[in-house]
Amino acid sequence: MDVGTGVAGFLAGLLISVVTSPVGVSGAVFLLPVQLSVLHVPNPAVTPTNLLFNVVSGPGALLRYRRNGQLTGPLARLLIAGTVPGVIVGAVIRVFAIPGPQVFRLVAGAVLLPLGLWLCVRALRPGTPDRPPLPRPAIVGLSLVTGTVGGIYGIGGGSILGPILAGRGTPMSQIAPAALASTFLTSIVGAATYGVLALSTSGDIAPHWVLGLLCGAGGLAGGYLGARLQPYLPERTLRLLLGVLATALAVVYLVQGLTG
């Protein structure tokens, strides 16, 4: 890996995390296409590299949210209870059932599209009444499903569930730190799972350590800054921006998957 690639990875992690951490969305969602198209990380190594990014970048935002007193309450524990076993299942599915890049793009698009549209709708209709908050068993069940999808896609799972919780009346001040805490822990488990699978499976499925660490270092600084700025940034604007980006990326992946 040359110096330019390393610098590009660091800056990508920094800029993406500044924008995504205030709403509890893992920057890995948007780092993945950068890895594939700009940094040229091979498939399927891109998924564990994304998980490595989450592991390194996560403490930045979490430290700031902890200082703000936002890491209290049961929500993080509920998300972790479902996403941790889910991410292990997702990693196994990713290696043995969805190894091809074409199918991978379709899966990535299917994950990003509803997430992006949901964020856009909530941002454009802020006066829409929220539904009653989900009961705890439902949160754990959804966490299991999103953890599995996150293990396949390399985003940890908590980032997918965050918009659902927001639409059901949970404040963003609770969702953001809980989702990032869940993503951080499940990414550790997911990266370890890929490491174990790499020992007994042929193919490039181990993370690209140097690049993942450099992207994560940028995300560490960017996540701390984004969490620090959260109280001063308009939530509606951030959700709309994230929704537009996620939807656009989903369309690109779906088109590539269907025509590739």
UniProtKB/TrEMBL annotation:
Q: What is its main location?
A: membrane
Sequence intervals crossing the membrane: 7-32, 75-96, 103-124, 144-166, 178-199, 205-225, 237-255
Q: Any keyword Electron transport?
A: no
Question: Could you tell me the keywords of this UniProt record?
Answer: Cell membrane, Membrane, Transmembrane, Transmembrane helix
Membrane topology, as annotated, equals: Multi-pass membrane protein
Q: One Pfam family, short name please?
A: TauE
Q: Where in the cell is it found?
A: Cell membrane; Membrane
This protein's superkingdom?
Bacteria
Give the UniProt family note. Belongs to the 4-toluene sulfonate uptake permease (TSUP) (TC 2.A.102) family.
**What PANTHER family does the entry give?**
MEMBRANE TRANSPORTER PROTEIN HI_0806-RELATED (PTHR43483)
Which protein is depicted?
A: Probable membrane transporter protein
Q: Name the species this protein comes from.
A: Actinoplanes ianthinogenes
